[in-house]
Amino acid sequence: MPKIAYVNGQYVRQSEAAVSIEDRGFQFADSVYEVWAVLGGRLADGAGHFQRLERSLGELSIPAPMSARALERVLKETIRRNQVREGLVYLQVTRGTATRDHVFPSDETPATVVITAKSVDRRAADIRADRGAAVITLPESRWARCDIKTTGLLPNVLAKQKAKAAGAVEAWFVDALGLITEGASSNAWIIDEAGMVRTRDTGANILRGITRGTLLSVMAREGMTVEERPFSIDEAKKAREAFITGAGTLLLPIVKIDGAPVGDGAVGPVAKRLRWLYIEEARRTAL
Q: What's the pLDDT at 204?
């Protein structure tokens, strides 16, 4: 079955989908994106992603191309046409097509909207989560507005490639104070030496992870205390456990940082339980 993409009001074969070479997303990365996990054919953490999309568009002064209700219908139709039960659906909204110029085009310029969907092997993901994964650390090299989910991801791409070359799944960025900000495509967490769950606060202009937010709510419901404060590389390497969260990985335990084992080098009980709790909540509340 050919993959189907939604492009500016039409469903087309993904292999034939196209936008103008003067689209501002291509020319300037003048665009935002969102990624929803698809669980049982439904949108996980749906409301949170719609809210973040609205915020990202607002921060870049890109008018919303359609209502949230209409967008939800289009996302679900793209999922249906691609027969995705477990996977991801990706949305990109650009400022549209106009003669190349750094300043914004006229307000009448319609936004470009592209949506694609793909299946994910959840069984393979569960096996990887049971085994745990590795991360590396790299100096922070991104712009200061990482709280906006833009498509300007070249530093993230380079970091991911370095991680792959090192046999890791993710790179954690480290700021000028030696504190971990977040991953190239995920939020970073540890259970520190004292047993406290910690993750960076979003006031540091890190991405306001939707999976992160749901997990915080789940932990609050379970009576678990979380400290939203930064941690250093040394603290991370001395931690009992570590993990990352994001729509692509859901919750993935980390057992190695820069080649050094985290704890005893095996997936710990807290991360394992939190992964199960998050997935249960995400499936229960999916749109």
A: 74
CB–CB of 223/273 below 8 Å?
no
Beta carbons of 113 and 4 less than 8 angstroms apart: no
- Lookup result for tokens 């936004």: 111
Q: Report the alpha-carbon distance of residue 123 to residue 218 in Å, rounded.
A: 23
- Evaluate whether 268 touches 240 at the Cβ level (below 8 Å): yes
For 102, residues 6+ apart whose C-beta sits below 8 A from its C-beta are 28
List the alpha helices (DSSP H) in 207-260.
210-221, 233-237
- Closest residue by Cα to residue 51 from 216, 201, 189, 209: 209
**Predicted TM-score of the model (pTM):** 0.93
Verify whether residue 160 is a known catalytic residue.
no
Determine which one of 3, 76, 118, 149 is catalytic: 149
Checking if the pLDDT of 23 tops 80, the result is yes
pLDDT at 270: 96
